[in-house]
Amino acid sequence: MKNTLLASAALLCVVFSSAAGERGIFGLYGDTPDAKHAWAVHDFNRPYPKQVETPPGKPPSDAIVLFDGTQKSVDENWCDRKGNPTKWRVKDGLFVCTPGSGLACTRRAFGDAQFHVEWLSPVADAKKHGQLGGNSGVIPMGRYEIQILNSYDPDPSADVERNYPDGIAASVYAQNPPLVNASRPAGMWQTYDIIFHQPIWKDGKVLHPGTVTVLHNGVLVQDAWELEGMATHRVRIPLRQHAAKLPWMLQDHGDPVPFRNIWIREIPSRWDNTTHSEMSAKEEDVRALREQTAAALFAKIDVKVPDTKNVNGILEVLSYSKKPEYLKAAQSLCAGYDAWLKTLPPDKLAANKRYIDGTLKGFNVLIRNKVIGANDYPLRATLEHFSKQK
Ligand code: MG
């Protein structure tokens, strides 16, 4: 009698469904982690990105606001090259270049970043072309220039003095003209959204030259342009290694160019991703993260209860790691589940077919990815048998 009661109690623990079990069914169906990828395809265990608030017309919530129309934001964020207060002035809520005062430099140093700025070519410069019309520039890390210039040019046949193409607005100065000229006429506000990745160095040599992408008034004008050198005039100066973070600058080229709404977001280098990337993953880092994930998932499994949740759970663990402890638990759980399934009447099996199919899919993902062999677990044949029944 006592043995019967114990057996019944054990059977009560064996169930098809639970919230976690349902997720387990759907959680293991993409290709499994490999030497370069710590996460499966469509991996629910992969961390979700942080939510960023994007109120219309305002900087995103994770931006560092460098100028918001106030003197306070200038005092906090801008200086000259020596760290002294900048002589650029705040006028009518705008940050205006004071000609002859030199570069405006961010007090904080930044490396890879997304940078937003709004600028305007003064109307007084509307007739000027060449280097004379509202010249300034955004200078990421003080090394590379995205040109600012009055460059609106709707009539290619007009006889006007133009600057060289690699020096008009939105050019990577002295390197690459914009893909199209998205300039607005003088007197109209314009926007730059710049995505900048600095060069990557290894043992003193360029591993990757870095890229700059620019949207000018919302139009893509620099498409991940690979940097070829430092910002220069007339000559080519190759890339030179520099600190990982440096001040960003706005150029004083002698014109009173006004700016507004300046913000920056620090962004990771793709080369920092050492756990999930064909290009930059380090296999030891991938292995370590896979083991960490496997251990966290294994801690949620009761190896004594061979139910849907625990069987799906151990299959998921195996996709990250095949430590002997996990393989042993998998054999035990699958054998117990197999035995239990075979005790069930056809109506109960039919009613729970989706769970049977789900676990079978999990097995098939592991087999497809050569994590396990097709015949390593007799449970799979049982699942396949019941799955084919109507
Ligand atoms: Mg310039």
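The longest strand covers residues 189-197.
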